[in-house]
Amino acid sequence: MAEEILAGKKIVLGVSGSIAAYKAAEIIRLCRKVGAEVKVVMTEGACEFITPLTLQTLSGSPVAIDLLDADEESAMGHIKLARWADWVLIAPASANTMARLVQGRTEDILSALCLATEAPIALAPAMNNKMWTHEATQQNLAVLIGRGNYILGPDSGDQACGEQGKGRLLEPEQIIALLSQLMVPKRLSGKRVVVTAGPTHEPIDPVRYIGNRSSGKMGFELASAAAEAGAEVILITGPVHLTTPSAVCRIDVETAEQMYDVVMDISDADIVIGCAAVADHRPAKYHKKKIKKSDSESSSLALIKNRDIITAVSLRKERPFVVGFAAETENMAEYAKGKMKAKNLDMVAANQVGKDLVFGADINALHVFWSEGDQTMATAFKSHLARELMTLIIERYDAKNSTKNS
């Protein structure tokens, strides 16, 4: 797959100051192995971790380091590279580099090139976990995504500083796989995709609610994958703390009834993916004042059933292609297939949940069913899994429409 997509592509690899800079050597090797041409741009900080000579040898081209190079500047080196590139990949992208790009600063050749290029830019962040989660970095991340940049990772795990957490550079194989997926032809161009994500909160009183453990991560990754495939994407999400994916229209809701109303108000979707963990019930009565603690040993809460969003969508006269999710603690395949039939779904993606499984994690595994077959998707990062699932959804969507039109 990557061999076909990356072959002949011109990639500028930007390497910034991070201990993970040594992985740039493997990224270059993998790019050239699949037929891509690579030219390297390094910051001064990157040169402290890996030598330009190493990357020059692997890429087969001189490495650009200085913005004001006496040998290159007559040809406006950074402008020349900016026009040459089909893609700019910054791996690793340090917190400092991300901040410079946000501010539009141009005191080094990498940031100047990014400001001058019209090529798409993908960043693979790498930094200490506390630096990654810092409010400043997260704000910079949101700005970069809002400007149309693509973010690859980061990964979670052991870090060079001895700490653990999110901030590791993705492995080179993962970076190349994700970059190749970004280059896939826009198969959903002109299509509208609606994705629901996250939990819903059903209020009991001003301080309490009924909810669940959904993080929204899978739904957000699916929205990102749909946008990458060229779709107009509307992401309807319950209460989560996640950054809106690039080129995605986000609508925030709190309750199941609010989510139902927003989804049903969109009448021209081509594909609807119900990834949200919508509450099945809500309190029959909302108390305007906080319910006081009772001396009684027990208390009860009356519940009423919420309207089923995905079923309502599937019953429309002009129905879209409908994909549901089934989070199960047991008998996953049996329940998932039953849900697909009962709710008239085109596809259902089932996953095992429970203590320490899926909810809030960065990884997942799926078993996807449709009327003619099924496919298992092995445990992987949700970003990778979402793109694999989106590819399958597109295939089944195209197959259904070709049958309808034949």
Short description:
The chain is α/β, with parallel strands linked by helices. It has two domains: 181 residues, Rossmann fold (3-Layer(aba) Sandwich), CATH 3.40.50; 214 residues, Rossmann fold (3-Layer(aba) Sandwich).
Q: Mean pLDDT score, rounded?
A: 89
What is the strand tally? 19
Unreliable residue stretches: none
CATH superfamily of the largest domain: CoaB-like
What is the SS-derived class?
alpha/beta
What is the beta-strand fraction? 15-25%
- The number of helical elements comes to 15
User: Which strands sit side by side, in order, in the main sheet?
Assistant: 12-11-8-13-16-17-18-19
CA-CA gap between termini: 29 Å
Number of spatially distinct domains: 2
Q: What summary fits the major beta sheet?
A: 8 strands, mixed
CATH topology (level 3) name of the largest domain: Rossmann fold
> What's the gyration radius in Å?
24 Å
Which range best describes the helical content: under 10%, 10-25%, 25-40%, 40-55%, 55-70% or over 70%?
25-40%
Named at the architecture level, the CATH assignment of the largest domain is 3-Layer(aba) Sandwich
- Give the overall form: globular
Question: At the first level of CATH, what is the class of the largest domain?
Answer: Alpha Beta
Walk me through this protein's architecture.
The protein is of the alpha/beta class. It folds into 2 domains: 2-182, Rossmann fold; 192-405, 3-Layer(aba) Sandwich (Rossmann fold), CATH 3.40.50.10300. Helices cover 35% and strands 25% of the residues. The strands form 5 sheets. The protein has an 8-stranded mixed beta sheet with strand order 12-11-8-13-16-17-18-19, sandwiched between helices. Strands 2-1-3-4-5 form a 5-stranded parallel beta sheet, sandwiched between helices. Strands 6-7 form a two-stranded antiparallel sheet. A hairpin with a 5-residue loop joins β6 and β7 (164-168). The longest helix is centred in the C-terminal third of the chain and has 24 residues, at 382-405.
